[in-house]
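Forum: Protein Structure Q&A
Topic: Joint prediction for protein chains with partners

I've read a bunch of threads here and the consensus seems to be that you should model interacting components together rather than docking separate models afterwards. I'd like to see that in practice. Below is the full input, 229 residues plus whatever partners are listed. Could one of the regulars post the assembled result?
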Amino acid sequence: QLQLQESGPCLVKSSETLSLTCTASGGSISSNSFYWGWLRQPPGKGLEWIGHIYYSGSTYCNPSLKSRVIISVDTSKNQFSLKLSSVTAADTAVYYCARVLRGSYSYYMDVWGKGTTVTVSS
Amino acid sequence: SYELTQPPSVSVSPGQTARILCSGHKLGNKYAFWYQQKAGQSPVLVIYQDTKRPSGIPERFSGSNSGNTATLTINGTQVMDEADYYCQAWDSNTGGVFGGGTKLTVL
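Posted by a regular:
Agreed with the consensus. Here's the joint model:
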């Protein structure tokens, strides 16, 4: 059964770049049936879709974050990664990686990692 | 940009039916998805493509979507169903959109 695990620094300084990696086990990132996504949830708030990537490298990014986001995939390590640049306190959140399915004119998540809390400090 | 609106909270007594609404412009023309998030845990998909239940989700969870409103219905609500529930849709311009979440209280 697929499991996803986020890893990376829990504390990032303001204006620097947040970098997270998601490692998949029990399934292959290279599957042509799935995409791989990043989402976040600020403390006490709702969910936000950051973006997702296909094993071939094609990506989608939330238009509101697109200028600061890079999502990449490393199939040899069964990992995908998120880089968010120029962070501010507003980027403090629990960051989740997830498996993304493509339906008819839609995308949605069916497997989620446990999430990792990232705090942006000044 | 596309937006989804949910009521902040819904309360129900154990054994009763809970209905959580999600509204958006012509939402019925899109697919709606629902996630359950219990305190301190990751979200769990409970309904996909309006009405379908993933494997392992109890039959008491059902969904519908028409017009501008999608509805998550929980029949015979149990205390274990107490959680935050988020609707989600995909918009061709905005991308992945979530509602603000509804806190379901079972008491």
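The beta strands of chain B are 9-12, 18-23, 33-37, 44-47, 61-66, 69-74, 83-91, 95-98, 102-106.
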